[in-house]
Amino acid sequence: MASVTVDPDGITVQARDGECILSALNRSGYGYRTGCRRGGCALCKADLVSGEVSYPVVVADSVLPAEEQAGGACLTCRAVPHGDVVIRLRDDRLRCTSSFLAALAGRVTPAVERNI
Amino acid sequence: MSVMRLGYVHARVTDLADAKQHYGETLGLRAVHEEPGKVYFKGWDEYDHHSVVVEEGGVGLVKLGYKVSELTDLELYEKRAQQFGCITERMSAGDNLEVGDGVRVVLPSSHVVELYHEMTTVGTDVGSHNPEVFPRHLVGVGVPRVDHALLTTSDVATTERFFKDVLDFYPTERVATTLDDDAHVIGTWLTAGNTVHDIAFIEGPDNKLHHFAFELGDWNEIGRAGAIFSMDDVSVDVGPTQHGITRGRTIYFFDPSGNRNEVFAGGYVAFPDRPCVTWTVDQIGKGIFYVSRELNERFTSVLT
Known about the structure:
The complex is a heterodimer of chains A (116) and B (304).
Chain A: E1 2-7, E2 11-15, H1 21-27, E3 30-31, E4 45-54, H2 66-70, E5 73-75, E6 80-89, E7 95-96, H3 99-104, H4 111-114
Parallel strand pairs in A: 1-6
Antiparallel strand pairs in A: 1-2, 3-7, 4-5, 4-6
Chain B: E1 3-13, H1 16-26, E2 30-35, E3 38-42, E4 52-56, E5 60-68, H2 72-84, E6 88-91, E7 102-106, E8 112-116, E9 145-153, H3 156-165, E10 170-176, E11 185-191, E12 199-203, E13 208-216, H4 219-231, E14 235-242, E15 249-254, E16 260-265, E17 277-280, H5 284-288, H6 297-301
Parallel strand pairs in B: 1-4, 5-8, 9-12, 10-17, 13-16
Antiparallel strand pairs in B: 1-5, 2-3, 3-4, 6-7, 7-8, 9-13, 10-11, 11-12, 14-15, 15-16
């Protein structure tokens, strides 16, 4: 298990071993603006503030160029955390999309955090 | 003389094994040829050698192939494309596996289209002598054939004019800012024959793929495809729903590399003398997704 913290709101969820960041967020009842969820469109692109991720599934260089990756960009739909990570969304905020899943994941979500 | 149909889609994928699983096992295309870095597929009701080529390395579209009815069409279309101002290039038989001589054209939208007259015939999976109505052992969705592609272009009007003036396509439907003649056209759906569209363009960046589509028969087949997508954990974009534009029933979904695909059923029969339908931009939500009447953000932003 690794913790995934999403800025700017500092919401933390747990990722299972081998689970990508976006799946961990969705399974924990959270979501934000995403596209194909398969690494092709770059809509989910965020900045890795701290920690390490890897890409078990190949991502096209045109979608996530090596220099962008070196600069901290990551595709949450394909990036798997290695240890705890902090990411920052670009022009978007994390939303609680399912209170049921959030409760199941052990997070009680105050209304002020929902950003709906 | 005319363009007959979209003959092949050549797309890039990030992982060939995943692509083979998706196009082969989920959609049910048959892999007809494999070579390092590429797999060639055909649908069960297609009789030419292949209709989909996936190539490992990147995402998006490499090119589309459109088959013409006469060999002499190639020269005519080549000349017209050059007169239009497009870069063209001759292709020789064998440049593309099992494809004859042809002309490669770079569209005003920067996409590459190849016109060809011959591809090795391998026959449909039910044959052409007293055939059964479908093959008994289809895999997955079991799509019969490739249907159309939707691409993005920074200049819809010029791209539409290319298809009309050079390739004798005609638009069946358009999205425009107003109903006036001088309205800005932001989308066009074009056909070369009687299907409701063989290609379509919406305004966006040049040289990008929105989706390519496979034909299905009706609502029931669309619903069954949706069930298969759930079984195989396919990333679904939208649907099942219906388009106002073309009246097609649809599911948009993504291949494992993020290229958008569609299963499409039931567009109306087109004729050149049928008045072109115009949708105004304020009704584009209804035009694209007739049931919800809401255009999701992904429709215009998720491209490969």
